[in-house]
Design brief:
193 residues; alpha+beta; 5-stranded antiparallel sheet; 41% helix
Length: 193
Amino acid sequence: GLGDVYKRQVYPWVRLRHAGYGAYALALQRLGGYFGAQLMRSLREEAGLTYGVYARAMHTQAGSFFAVSSEVARDRAREAMDRIAYEIKRWHSSPFPEEAVFEEVRNFLLLRMQVESMSEWVDRMAYELARGSSAAQYVARMEEVASYRWETLPSLDLPLLAQVQVAVGGEEPIFAEGAPQSSYSTIPGQQLR
């Protein structure tokens, strides 16, 4: 609506071709890839800040990142940003606090990775090929995800700080910030309002 703020926080991420991408995909799924994910529970179910909040990987020729996206009431935007930062910190230190959580996420991700029609397979392969991956690598990632167990999941180097944060609530940004202290970004921090 008119009082809403659309916000996005962007974090560095691993490339699709990364040898352990399947483990990272599981962690990102846990953070914000489905309705029962960590961010959704915190921001929607516990705090009532938004209808939906998601974390999705984006892969480009220049690099990979993931974005946390949501829409919140203008007067609760800072609260949402703070809650996201808190959840990212929890996720960073322990993406899967319990085996049952891990199993739920793994099973959900495997269902999402399965293709049900030729058309869906073509779309999936077009996405993979455009990002430097292949059908064989996609199948190998599915097998990798299926092979993981909670007790043997490798340690992951998960990002903690957003490299870019943007909130828009009208014709111009409410704020846009970069993180110059990081090797990932050369965008200077900038407060627009």
